Amino acid sequence: MSGRVLLDSNVLVALVDSRDKWHSRAKGLLDLLEARQVDLIYLDCVVNETISVLARRAEEQKRSGRFPALLDKLLQQVPEDTITWALLEIKRLYPQVIELVRNTSGALNFHDALMALFCREIGEAEIASFDEDFDRIAWLKRFTFPHVRESETA
Question: Which residues contact 71 (CB under 8 A, 6 or more apart)?
Fold first, then answer.
C-alpha cells in the first residue's frame, strides 16, 4: 500500500450513513487506513457527489429531517481545509478523462475517471472504493478491505 489513499464517494457515504449497507465495512476500512497512518485524500468532486447522494437518499427514504445531521457528520469527517481541489484541473485533464471514460465503455463515469487520473498525477496513490470498475485500470490500485481487490477474494 502506498502512503496516500483517495477515498471514493461510496466509502464516504457509507461512513456517514449508518443505514448504508457498506457502513461497517467502510468504518473498518477507515480504521485500517488510519492505523497505517496513510494520508487520506478527499477530492472536491467526491465531496460534491457525497453531499448529493446523501441528500437524494434522505429524501427518497423519507428522512429529509436527518439530512442536516448527515451533512454535519460529513463535514466533520472532511473539513474544508482537507479538501483537494481537483475540479480546477478539469480543463487540462478533460481530453484524458474523456479517453478513459471511452476506453472503459462508460463503466467509469466522468468523476471516476477524473479521480483515477488524479491518482496517477500525484503518483503512487491508491483509491479506496467498493467500485470494482476501477479494477479495469491497470495502473490504478484499488484498496478495499482488508487490502485486496474484490475479484481476488472471490
Answer: 51, 54, 55
CATH level 2 (architecture), domain 4-153 = 3-Layer(aba) Sandwich (3.40)
Residue 153: alpha-carbon gap to chain centroid:
21
- The pTM score is 0.87
CB of 11 closer than 8 Å to CB of 26: yes
Q: Which of 90, 81, 114, 87 is nearest to 100 (CA)?
A: 114
The pLDDT confidence band at residue 150, using thresholds 50, 70 and 90, is: very low
Residue written as grid cell 461510496 = 10
pLDDT (mean) for 147-151: 41
Cell of 40: 487520506
